[in-house]
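HUMAN: Mind sharing a backbone?

ASSISTANT:
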Amino acid sequence: MNKEFIDRIFKITDMENVHLDEPMKSHTTFKIGGNADVYIDVAKDEISGIISLSDEENVPYTIIGNGSNILVGDKGIRGVTISIGKRMSDIKVDGTVIVAEAGALLSRTAATALDNSLSGMEFASGIPGSVGGAVLMNAGAYGGEMKDIIESVEVLTPKGVVEVYAVSDLDLSYRHSKLMETGGIVLSATLRLEEGSAEEIKATMQELNGRRVDKQPLNFPSAGSTFKRPEGYFAGKLIQDAGLRGYRVGGAMVSDKHCGFVVNTGGATASDVRNLIDDVSSKVYEDAKVKLEPEVRFIGEF
């Protein structure tokens, strides 16, 4: 990356927010990934300028959130990696409405709802992602989805214009929003919840988190559920029935606790994980004639 480009970046954001040759394994829940050429922790008012500069200089850019649903290639990420995280994590409450910036963690947003006796986010309290990523893929768990609580979303369009979309404009469905096709960047989300009993909300969160601890392999790094749920089936059951519980490629393994999770048992590479995912998909199709699609997003160079 040339010095002139970096110097121009420093005119948009402070030097302390810019990291060169940054190991992405430090920024993903898989604890896997090569280095990013330039990694920037951004504030809301800096994103448009950084993207414009990157476009002007023909430098590719990649947007990431909490790193909880991605697999970064072993060769890292070329160009600029824009991290929507701690500098975009404000949460405001107004009555039964919560406005959360895209970098706010879902767990912290759900805790804020609990603190204000607001019900509706209980399902999200244990999801290890950020609000922006949750909107982008309509994250959900235990019968709840983001589409159930979103009122509107503030988005930076590919043309550099900030627009507000109502939930009906987002085409939210299972692990999908239209932003996946249009390329819009979530800046914040307005969530409409309901007044409730703090004791009941807390009890529900504890119950769901207890179920998560019991059923999910939280003792190993992972990106959560590795595969989307095929219509009419459960990915974990298909993988188990194909005899793949505990199947390994290098340091990557199909969890022996929950077959829907691929975990890093220690020292796994991105290639290990990707090859394991390909093997699982092939063997499940051979066994059950059902195609498994990864829920994990592949980013960077493999």
